[in-house]
Amino acid sequence: MGLVRLRYLIANVRSFSKLNSSRKYGSDVPKGHLAVYVGQIQKRQFVVPISFLDQPLFQDLLRHSEEELGFDHPMGGLTISCHEDAFVELTARLHCS
Fold first, then answer.
1. Cα atoms in the Cβ-side hemisphere of radius 13 Å centred on 15
2. Distance between CA 23 and CA 74 in Å, rounded?
3. What's 49's DSSP letter?
4. CB 59 within 8 A of CB 45
5. Dist CA 56 CA 73 (whole Å)
6. 87 vs 6, 24, 36, 72, 83, CA distance in Å?
7. Which letter does DSSP use for residue 74 in this model?
8. Residue 57 pLDDT > 70, yes or no?
9. Euclidean distance between CA atoms 93 and 10, whole angstroms
């Protein structure tokens, strides 16, 4: 069931990106990227490429966040509950792949 919801989330993020390609999604979020909020207590915004949604490591991270937080986020974007250092390390590995 979680995999189906994850695929649904990925499809929604991609369609949201296409719908907003002509509008300003946010001055700090370039086309082809999305904002995620990372942290266990205080959330910090990170901007990542949409291509990360296809990466198994990032999908695992989203799955764990879904189990912990669900998909209803008060910040208005994806919220990932993990240490910032771990997130930075994971995204650095994804940038190198």
1. 6
2. 22
3. E
4. no
5. 22
6. 19, 26, 11, 20, 6
7. T
8. yes
9. 20
